[in-house]
Structure formats: C-alpha cells, structure tokens
Amino acid sequence: MTDSAHNRLPDLTFLRLPHFPPGEVWLPGAGPGDPGLLTLHAVNALAQADIILHDALVDDAVLRLARPGIAVESAGKRGGRPSPAQQDITARLIALAGQGLRVLRLKGGDPFVFGRGGEEALGLAQAGISFRVIPGVTAGLAGLAYANIPATTRATNHGVFLVTGHDAPDTEHQLDWPAVARTGLPIIIYMGMKRLPLIAQDLLAGGLSPGTPVAIVRDATRKQQRVLMTTLEHAAAQADAAGLRSPAIIAIGEIVALRDALAPFAISLAETS
User: In the chain, what are the domain boundaries?
Assistant: First the structure.
C-alpha cells in the first residue's frame, strides 16, 4: 500500500452516525490503549462533545480527536493513588448535563466491563439525565490478542472467566477463587497485580496445577506492551522480579501456552501502529 493510500480516509457520512444533543451524557469506551481500536461511534462522539471527562489510561492520541478548544478534565481513578470519588464524578456529569452541555465521559476499555460505567449510568438515570453507552474494546480480550493468546479455541475451552482482582470494600460479593479454579476454565484477571500472590494461593488451593501457564500483559495494546510468560507457582515472584505493575492483564490457563506457536509468525500491531 502506498503512503497516499494508507493516509486516505473513507467518506463516512453514509453511516449516519448519531447526533449528540445538548444536555446528554455519552459514555464511550476508548479501548485499552491503542488509538486504532477506537470505534467509529466513539470518534463521532469526540467530534461533537462540549466537554470531556476522561479516565487516567486514555491515550493522548484519542483526546486529540476532540473538537479544538473544548474543555478536558481528568476523572481517572487509579488504585492506591489520590483520585476523584465515584460519587463526585457522577455528580459532575449530572451538573454539566444540567448546564445544557454535550458531556462525554470517556472510559478506558469498555464502559460496562469493570469500568464503573454501569454505576454512572444508574446515577444519570436516577437524575433523569439521558445518556448513550458506546461499547469499547475491553483490555482483557484485546490485550491477549495483541500478545497472541486466543481467549477461546475449540480445542482448549468453551468458556472463559473475566474477573477483577480488586474487590470493592463495601460489597458482600467476594469472589470464590477456589471455586473458579475448579471449573477448569481459563481466567482473565483485570486489576489483579496487587493481590496476585493471594489469588495464586487460592487458585492452587482450588486444585489448579502449579505448572498452569500464566501470561501477564503489561500496558496491553500499547507500543510499550510487555508480556511475561510464567506459571501459576512462580507468577507473583517473577512479576515482582521483572518490575511488572498495573496496568496489566493476567491470563491463566491452557490458552496461554498457544502463544509459543503463534507469536513467532504474528505481526504485532503494538509494534507497527
């Protein structure tokens, strides 16, 4: 493909992408990092918004797609770091919509997959504010794909667990990790680095083999993406030795071993984007 062909964008007007009315809040997912994973609906929303409240991990290249001169506010929540309270973020969305602004709440990944988008949508609904949810590419699946690990294959698994390693302190719905282990299904963990030693211990107690393959994908889909291949027995110690911290996705199960066959022949979008 020539450079001119590579840079030519198609005419998208025939898609009739939706109009963003004043006084509404839109909640699009920005994807896990690579701006190329943004959906057309999200690009359309960025082009119309009056103000953007964005998560901490939204790439700067995504924000550059917004209309010039609009207000941009960080509303990112990072574990263990000073960040806005969830109720304050929701209240801010309601107040801005009440001013007749087109409010864009830009979420990392998918807003309804461990993104607190459901909580914000519920708060908007209770306040009588119209909203639109725009799905995004979630890191747990895209991160594995960029690491050349398929989330499912017919030969290995007919299901997969998407779970968070960060339990909300005010909920009774604590995850039964040994029970998850006993299903035999692959496990994809968001926000699990801090509790990885305890999670691994519980999964071993549930019957998973110490040699169960584990992949830790740091900065999933970004150019600086790193992948650590290890086993359940050694995952916590090797991640610590490698200096791997959040944001990272942890994949556990036989699907991880498929990377050895796929990676040597796969062209990485993370490296070429």
Answer: 18-134, 139-272
The CATH-assigned architecture of domain 18-134 is 3-Layer(aba) Sandwich (3.40)
Q: What are phi and psi of 103, to 5 degrees?
A: -100, 125
Q: Buried b vs exposed e over 237-262: b needs ≥16 C-beta within 10 Å?
A: ebbeeeebebbbbbbbbebbebbeee
Annotated catalytic residue within 34, 59, 107, 191? 191
Give CATH superfamily name and number for 139-272: Tetrapyrrole methylase, C-terminal domain (3.30.950.10)
Report whether 217 contacts 248 (CB < 8 A). yes
Maximum Cα interatomic distance, the chain, rounded to a whole number of Å:
57
This prediction's pTM: 0.90
76-119 per-position pLDDT tens digit: 765 555 678 999 999 999 999 999 999 999 999 999 999 999 99
Active site residue 77: yes
**1 is an active site residue:** no
Q: Does the annotation mark 193 as catalytic?
A: no
